[in-house]
Amino acid sequence: MDAIKTLALFVLTALAEIIGCYLPYLWLKKGATPWLIVPAALSLALFSWLLTLHPTAAGRVYAAYGGVYVCVAVLWLWVVDAIRPSVWDAVGAGVTLLGMSIIMFAPRHAS
């Protein structure tokens, strides 16, 4: 799987997870309808399925996914929560993307 497809799949996965967690937040903290649990559960099921689409070891996928998740969460902060990320948010997100890139794209020898 090439780098662009891997990154796109990670971004979709992160969005599914964030939406699956954000909808119950709206219910519990913002007084929205409890029916949001239904699409939240579907979104979290989609999140789990998307993680299985990577052709590499599960532990490596989970570790690398965390870096993309942080970046998407910072973008969510900006776009959805309307809070502009700080320089430190951007630096932290950049560091996690660097870590993700090392984990996913470093050369590996067949065992």
Quick overview:
By secondary structure, the chain is an all-alpha fold. The protein has helices spanning 3-30, 37-51, 58-79, 87-105. The longest helix has 28 residues, at 3-30.
Distance between the termini: 19 Å
| Poorly predicted spans | none
Structural domains: how many: 1
Strand count, sense and closure of the main sheet?
none
Per DSSP E runs of 2 or more residues, the count of β-strands stands at 0
Work out the radius of gyration. 16 Å
What's the helix-strand series?
A: HHHH
What is the average of the pLDDT values?
92
Sheet-strand content, in percent, reads: under 5%
State the shape. flat
What is the SS-derived class?
mainly alpha
DSSP helical segment count: 4
Percent of residues in helical segments? over 70%
